[in-house]
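[09:14] KT: can someone run the structure on this one? pasting the chain below
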Amino acid sequence: METNKTTYDRRSFLKASVLSGGGMLLTVSWLSSFKSADKMQALNLPEQWASLNGYIHITPDNKIKLICPNPEFGQNVMTSLPMMLAEELDVDWKNVTVEMGPHDPAKLGAQFTGGSNSVRMYWKPLRQAGAAARQMLREAAAQTWNVPVGEVTTKAGVLSHPSGKSAKYGDLASKAAAVPVPKDLPLKAPKDFTIVRKATKNVEGHKIVSGKPLFGLDYQVDGMLIAMIQHPPAFGMKLKSFDAVQALKMPGIKDIFSLKLYEDGFEQGGFDTRTFNELLVVVGNTTWEVMNARKKLVANWENAGDTKDTMGGRGGKKEVVVPGALETTSTQMQQMHEFANKPAQQLRKDGDPETAFKNAAQVIERTYNAPFLAHNCMEPMNFFAHVTDEKALFAGPLQAPGWTEPTLAKLLNLPADKIEIQMTRMGGGFGRRAYGHYLSEAGLISKKVKAPVKLMYTREDDMTYGIYRPMYTATYRAALDADKNLIAFHVKGGGIPEHAIHANRFPAGAVDNYLAEGWQIASNITIGAFRAPRSNFNAAAEQSFLDEVAEAAGKDPIEFRLELLKKAKESPVGKNNEYDAGRYAGVLELLREKSGWGKPGNEKYNRGVAAYFCHNSYAAHVVDMVTRDGQPYVERVFSAMDCGIVINPESATNMVQGAVVDGIGNAFYGALTHKDGVPQQTNFHNYRMIRINEAPKSIEVHFVQNDLDPTGLGEPPFPPVFGAVANALYKNKGRRFYNQPFQPDFEKNVKTTI
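[09:31] RB: done, structure tokens below
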């Protein structure tokens, strides 16, 4: 059993908060400091709900409502997070209802969905909240029955005493709400879990399949207007002038105007972005009317020239110059080729790689390239805003309300406690909705027209407005001695506008002579987090290259990786290695067993393997490829994961399966290109996505069983899919592929490289 304190004096709380970046200690502190009788009016709960803390509410007739703090975009946190609460509260899951909480960091914590952090950062605080509420109920029962609290037990929402006395939680909830919050909370040992680790259906599953209003696009209020933005046709351009005479004559149109998102010198926060700063806005009664009126606008655009942004929030305040060139993909490729041949920033160096390469019996060198990628969330960007001089209400899909609220406060000149953000279910996120510019746009528009407004992006708006996965390249070199042993490893990576190199990840720590370098090229094409940022390219290139090195060394690709991991575990090289070599090897060993790697019966498949560590978790895949109708097709996939304790095996399996399909689709087809700053792909007709009939027939998912604290799962399965596909494609086509997406290369039977 583990015990965790939930009370901190103000000094220790502030100190710990600074050390953790604010983090979840907000929740811990509030659980221990707010008065239990507080009815949490911010949640608009009816009086009959007894609030035991910010997350748990119980009625006299034993209805139990658990509040999910984090935004939901399909990873099923609305089920898994409350499961952790319910486990320590000791209730019957079938009696539980779950509700999405509003943005309220004081009572509900950080409320950030991203970086595969939801389960990891709430694992202790939510269990503490559940254990605290259970103890308060036991105290209330002990007082009512005049018995020692140690004699009161709980099971499935019922309190019991050896004398035969019993009560449902609801019978004593009001009394329990007045009990002081306990200081020390014993938490269950994993062996005693009854809810966590059990396959559990999505609590919103019925609402989703029956079309209930859940998403931002569903949000409606009386008197709400619709707004759309006409942005410049190219990155590097800005609005010069416009003529709205004809557009204003269109039915249902209320106003057309331009406004700035950020005034000159505005200090942007960590998740702020400025793709196009001057907005041309059309406001009207309905989506259809606004779309039609927007077509009648006559807008004149001009080159923006170099601009300067003031950035804050991450890494301190700094001035950033954004170049004004109208960029073209072919020119960008040429730039990257030039930069790849220049000296770069050294990120890590172990041993003497220069000498090792000079004395090597064989040197293998390969370059890998990947394009910009669009997020393409199924639900395009949208948000509701109603801003007055006194307060503001926002509602819609958002990953990081805590990062967005300070920006809204500055833009709207309102204190944070006068800004309410209601979070709807997201129709996809993948990092795109961590950037809150569309909330800021909606708020400024509402303030301008003095009415409630829903800002809507079309699919074309969404795809051409930026926030892409960056454009990457990396050159890998490996040195082998006369006995085919790997004696040196060098990676030099770059990108627009950032590189993807994680210098302290495998095979760092497993090679005596190691060098990692990085470089980047500034751009006005805005980028952002894209499911496993940087890792999704880093894993693809690295795992493809390791297969080539294994082949040159005459070794099985899984065995080759395991040999390196054995060295990293037994005699690691250097410092700051991010991964646990034993756990890394564990997923490969599990995958080798479950996929039947190297065993008879799989001869019809072209098999590719890859493994990767990111977001504190370990993932590995075997991709089995065949030729169907003359084209390569991934028929089945075996996956192995180590993410610690798996809260909900059903949703965890679904998440891995989704990552596999997403990875296959992006590896084969994903690409967004530009010509003179203009995005060349605007919708699904020319931005290729994987089709239903192209998805694997089976994806078999296995988890390493351990009692370690849970870690990330939304992102870690995604990156190694690219490498596994590339390695299987080599077997299928008889040659290596170095440029994503792979389909144009194998269809044209050409090879290009930087």
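[09:33] KT: thanks! Residues 118-145 form the longest helix (28 residues).
[09:34] RB: yep, looked fine to me
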